[in-house]
Amino acid sequence: MNVSKVLKYLISGIVVGTLLFFAGFGVVNMLNGPDQVVQVAAQQQPSAMEKTENSENKALAVEVKPPSIAVKPTNSTAQNGQGTRESPIKIKPIDNHDSTTTDSVETQTSDQSATFGTLTLSTANPLNGQPVMADFMIENSDGMPVALVKDTAKSTLSLPAGDYKITVTQGEAKLVRFLGVKAGQSGAEVFELAVPALAGEAAQPATTDQGAATTAQQTTPAANTDRPAATAGTKATAVPATRTQSPAMGGLRLSALTKVGNRPTNVSFYIQKLNGKNVKSVKGVSTQQFRLPAGHYRITARKGTARVVAKVKVQANRGVHKIFHMPSATGASAPTAAPAVRSATTASKASTPATTTQQPVTTTPAKDKAKTGRLELFSQTATSNKPIKSNFYIQNPAGKLVVHKTYVESIGYKLPSGKYKVTVRSSGYQDKTTELFVRGGQVRRQVFKLQPKNSAPTRLPATAPSVQTPVSRAPATTTAVAQRREVQRGGLQVNIVSAETGQGLLADIAIYQPNGREVRRSSQVSSVRYDLPPQELIVRVNYGGLVTNQKVKIRSGKLAIKTIRFK
């Protein structure tokens, strides 16, 4: 009885050991190649008792089976759709073909690394600054889809250099922007999606976009495994709420598209304050991101002879995207490039007065385009001759508004020769209207002296008796002397305006004689007038560090007007 039990245990031990040996051998073959495991399993034909043991060992073998290591991912976070700056999602060009070996893939990526750039896309809620899960659709300049990243708040893509259209959607919220990728450079863009905040979120003001971008860069390098990418995103959203860098700064993105086709086009952007001070400028780009202090700015987009000007308000801790639709810059036959844009408008304006006037116009259509005159208008108070801010309206004889300018002291325009109706209005003063004739090749200047609305009716009866009562000869001699002195002296008026908008610019004005002696000086003014004896003088203007010297000649009894323009 004891011998049989010993034999039974001995035989079962031998069988179990044999099975374990073959099972271990099979696991080793599975690690070396899956085909060998199948061959070993096919060669064995165990008995009924061995089948039960083999089924248990197979279950154990399935649990111990390691994952396939034929393809090893190099950037796990990019495979999950959460690309970072350290491991961006690589997007191949459309005309590239996949290679079969890893060596060819490495050589291909190394060859194309010089033509690729990285673009970091992220979302934020403008109410509380928290990230928003959204879908990113990337299209190239031809409108072909390149990549689609779904359900993510931030992702970094490696794209070929070029222009792209980025569409971000989250529910009903949708944003479209045109971004450019440069070879070997990194770019970032934050999309503000106005989605309703959750009940647990606090509606607090968001911090600057720059702060959010820097915190994400500091936390994402730790996400080298498959899972910590989500935790890194949650840490990055909590840090910007405590940072308060540059609370008065805002973001401004400028983009330029063709007016026909809405395709990106390279232009030059000029950013100025409303007083004409230059802030920033960039040339030869289709889109550009700026960080500016909160306030109002004048943006000029220029391409060739085409120019588009717009006013933009930059808000603190907010992003603004302004798109300029540029017209096609056609090569006109005009000799100069600057007036090419105005030539079309002046030609149409010159044709309208010809239909209303009674003079024969059979020979004027070809000559009026070339013969244009200049009309300069000024507004002053009738009591003190001080320049005042006024609104100027210029109309043709048919009543059509030709040009107008609001809240300025003076204006100057080139107009076709003809008769015009000019109306000047200012707050607190009586309106004044007159008809002026502009001749080709000449400058017509007109000073409007405006009477105050309240004091004008009361002063007329008081001054009328005072002029008629004096009969003695002494006042007559004094007035004659005063008139003689007035004839001997001349006047000089200096105007500082913007070459783009025509508005006044604040600058320092100094008048010098040719020997260097200073005659007059005024600080931080846009227009000034002096009474000077006839002579030759030098007008020096200092506008924001830009200094220019202009010669002017003062003539007896005449007003010399010097208008200096700054770009």
Describe the structure.
- With 567 residues, the chain is an alpha+beta fold.
- Among the domains are: 116-192, Carboxypeptidase-like, regulatory domain (Immunoglobulin-like, Sandwich); 249-326, Immunoglobulin-like (Sandwich); 372-450, Immunoglobulin-like; 490-565, Sandwich (Immunoglobulin-like), CATH 2.60.40.1120.
- The protein contains eleven helices and 29 strands.
- The protein has a four-stranded mixed beta sheet, with no helix packed on it.
- Strand 10 (267-273) and strand 11 form a beta hairpin.
- The radius of gyration is 40 Å and the shape is elongated.
Q: How big a fraction of the residues is strand?
A: 35-45%
Terminal residue distance = 115 Å
Mean pLDDT: 72
Report the count of strand segments: 29
Adjacency order of strands in the biggest sheet? 1-5-2-8
Number of helices: 11
CATH class of the domain at 372-450: Mainly Beta
In short:
With 567 residues, this protein is of the alpha+beta class.
